[in-house]
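Hi there. Long-time user, first ticket. I'm pasting a complex I've been working with (about 936 residues overall). I'd like to know whether the download I got is complete or cut off, because the file seemed smaller than I expected. Thanks.
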Amino acid sequence: MQILRYIVARIVHALPVLIGVTIVVFLSIHLVPGDPIRIMMHGRIEDSEVAKIYHDLGMDRPLLLQYVTFLKNIFAGDLGTSLIQKAPVATLVVEKLWPTLMLLIFSTILSVLIAVPLSLVAAFKRGSWIDTGIRLGSIFGFAMPSYWIGLLLMLFFGLLLGWLPISGLGDGPVDMLRHLFMPSLTIAFFLGPILLQSLRSAMLDVLTSEHVEVARAKGLSEWRILMKHVLRNAMIPVITVLAVNISWLLSGAVVVEYVFGLPGLGSLLVRSVGYRDYPLIQGLAFVFGVLVVIVNLLADLSYMLIDRRVMKG
Amino acid sequence: MVASTEAQPRRSNPIFREIASWSGSLRAGAFIMLVIVLAAIFAPLIAPFDPNEQDFNAILMPPGWPHLFGTDSLGRDIFSRVLYGARIDLVIGFFTTYVPMTYGVILGAYAGYRGGWFDTVLMRILDVAMAFPFLVLIIVILAILGPGVQNIYISVFILAWTMYARLARAEMMVERTKDYVTAVKILGFPQRRIIFRHGLPNVINSSIVFSASDFVLNILLVSGLSFLGLGIQPPEPEWGAMIAEGRDFIRQAWWMATMPGLAILATGVALALIGDGLAQRLGERHHTTV
Amino acid sequence: MSEPLLAIEDLTVSFRTPRGPVLANNHLSLAVGQGETLGIVGESGSGKSVLCRAILRLLPSPPADITARAMRFGGRDLLKLKPAEMRAIRGQDIAMVFQNPMTSLNPVWPIGDQVSEGLRIHRGIGRAAARKAAVDILKRVGIPSAEVRVDDYPYQWSGGMMQRAVIAMAMTGQPKLLLADEPTTALDVTIQDQILSLLMELQRETGMAIILVSHDMSVISETCDRVAVMYAGSIVEMGEAATIFHAPKHPYTHALLRSIPHLDAREGRLATIGGQPPDLSRPEPGCPFAPRCPVASAECRALPIALKTLPNGQATACHFPERVADLDRRLAS
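Hi, the file is complete. Here it is re-exported in full:
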C-alpha cells in the first residue's frame, strides 16, 4: 500500500514538469523572430503560399487554441510533420529512437563498469598515490571534449588499427555492439569521472560508518561486508547521479552520434537545425524532455527497491 | 625625545599567506591557468605568425620548426591559431559562467530566504529547465535565432542561471535557520540587507566551487557548438571550429584536430584542479559578512 | 580466581598520526572470569573503547600498533590467530554491543536479516530457519509482535528497541563474553534501566561474562562485580565494585565518585575535577593524573606507575594510596 502511494506521488510530481515541457516546446516556435516559414524556405516562397501554409498549420489562430490543439495532437501521437522531409515527426522519431537508446544504455553500462571498481579502489586506498592518480585521471577524462576524444579514438582504433568500424550501426546485434563500442566509450570518458566522484565519496562515507564496524564485529568477511553492506548503501547516490546526469548523457549523445554517424535522434537534431526544420526540431525537443522526465521518474521508483526510507517522507 | 626601543613586529604579506595555504591541486591549477591566460593576453606578441595568414606552400605540415604545431589545410600556423583561439574561448567561457552566476545566485538566495509563491514558481521553472538536456535547449534556441557568438551568449544567459539558483537556494534555506540571521533580524535590519550583506557571502560557496566546473563545461559547450557548425564560424580560430576543420584531414594531418583539443584539455584540467582546491579551501572557511 | 575466561597481559595500543604516535592503551593487564561482569570506567579519551576494539582486533593495523605479552581467551592467544580464526570468534565466542544503535544498524536492511546474519554465516543455516531464530531472539529481548516486526527497517523503530535488536544480534552466537561499549549512553534514562536489566537477565540465563564500558558510575555500580578505572590509557584502580565505591584507593576514582551529583545533597556547586586530560601524544613520565591530583607530590610526577595489589585484593596504581583516605577529611574541613 505504501508502495502504491509512493509510486502515485512520484508520478503526480512529474506531471507539472511534463506540462512545463510542452509549454516550452510549444512556445519555442512562436518565439522565432521574423517569419519562420520564410526563413525555412530561405525566402524562396510566394506571399500567398506563406499565408496558405500558415492556415494549413493552424498558426493563424489564437495562441491558446493552438496550444490546446498541440496538446491534443501529442496525445494522439502526432508530433507535427517535418516540412523538409515531408514525413510525420513521430515516424521519424520512432525510426531513430532505437540507436539512441542503445547508445545511452551501452554508455551507462560502460561508465558504471569503469566507475564502480575505480571508486572502490580509490576509497579503500584513500590518500595514496593510486587514489590521486585515479582522481587526476578522472579530471582529464572530464575535461576532454567528447567530439575530440571521439575523433582520436576513431583515428587510432578505426583508421590506424582497423579494429573497430568508424561509423554507422552495422547489421545485426553483435555487429551493432562493435559499432557502438567507441561511441559509448567516448561518452564514458566524461560520464565515468562524474560517477566516480560521487561514488568515491559515497564509498568513503559508508566505509567509515559504524554499521560496517558492527558487521566486522559479527565476524563477517571483508568480501561479504563489501558486497552486502557497502555497495548496496553506496548505490543510492549512484542512481541519483545517473539520473541527474541524464541530460548531460543526452547532450553527449547528440555530439557523439554526429561524430560517429550513428542514425539516432541526436544526429537528426543536428541536421534539422541546419535545415531550420522547425516542426522536427520542436518534436525532437519534446521527445528529449520527456525522456529526461521518464528517466528521473524511473530513478525515483528504483530508490524504492534499494532504500525503504524514501517512502517515509 | 626617546626613540622607541621596541621593534615593530614584521607583518607577513596577507597575499603570500593566502597562497601558502593553498593545496597542491589549487596551486597547480592556478599556475596552469595563469600560463594560459597570459598566453592569451600576449598572443599578439608570442604568436610567430598571423593566425589568418594562409601560405599555400606550407599546407598540412607536421609539427616542427617553424610551425610548432604544424599547419592546416590552408597553410595557417596552428600554434598561432591556438593562441588566438584562447582569447575567444576564455572570454566566452568567462562571461557565460560568471554573468548567469550573479543573477542566478541572487534569485536563488532570495527565493531560499523568502519562500512563499516566489520560491514555488522558481522551483517549477528550475524543474522544467533541468528537464531538458542543456545542449538540446541551446541548439533549439540557436535554431531559432541563428548561429553566432551573440546568440550563444543570449541562449546561455537564458538557461545557465538555473544551477546557481538551485545551489544558492539550498544553502540559503540552511543559513536562514542559523543564529546569526536571527540576531540581525532582531536588530530590525531590512530584509534586503540581511539577504545581501549577511546571507549572501555565506551561501555562495557551493556556487563558487561549481563555477569552476561550469567554466569547463561552457568552454566545452561553445567549442562543441562550433564543432557542430552552430557556433563560431570559420575563419575564426576558435578551438572547436578548428577541431571540426581538422576532422576532414584526420588521417593525413592528425595535428590539426589534436592540438586545439589539447588546449581545451589543458584549460579544462587547470579549471578542474582549481575547482577541487576551492572546494577544499572553502570548506575550511567560517562565517563572514562582507 | 579459577582459570579466567579472558586474560590480557601487558597490552599496549598506539596510533600513528601525522603529529606522532598517540598512546591509547598503556601496558594494560586485566582478567575476566567466567560469568562475571567487569566494569570499565573512565572519561572520554581514557582508552576504554580502544580496549574493547583491541580485544576483538577491530583496529586496522596501520594506523594502530598493538603489542602485548598475550591476550588469552579460552586457551588461545587472540593475537596469534589467523584472520579466518579471529573471524570465527567474532560474533560467536565474543560479541560486541556498540554505543549508538541508530548507526549500528544498516538502514537499508531489514532488522531480522541483520540479527540473523551471524547465524547464517557462522552456522550456515538457511533463510527460513534464520528468520525463525531472529524472531525467537527478538522476542527474548522484549520486542513486541516480533513475528511481524522482524521485517521492519531500522527507521521504523525507537532507540531503545533498536538497542534491544543490537543486543539480540550479539546474543545469536551464544557468546561466552559480551563486550558492551557504552550500551546505554545514547538512550533516554528511563530506557537505560530497561536495557541494563535485560543485559543482567541474559547473563543470568546464559552464564556469559560481560565487560561493560561506561563513563557513568551509576551504570557501573548497578551491574558490575568488579571494576577497572581507566585514566589516560592506563588502569589506575581495580577491584571489587563495592570496595572501590566505598573506599577508593586512587585520587582519580575518589574525584569521579565525588563528582556524581546527589539528589539529597545540600546546595552548593557541583564538584568537578580541575584541569584537562593529558595529551596522549606526549606521555609524561610518572603518574598521568598528577597534574590534576590534589594530593600529588614531586615523586608522583617522576615515578612511573604500576598496578599494585593491596592485601584486600584491591589494586591501585597510586604511589601513595593512603593519602586518598585523607581527602575526605581535607575536603570536609
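A couple of notes from our side: Chain C touches chain A at residues 56, 58, 87-92, 95-96, 98, 100, 103-109, 117-118, 121-122, 153, 155, 166, 169, 173 (CB under 8 Å). Chain C is about 35% helix and 20% strand.
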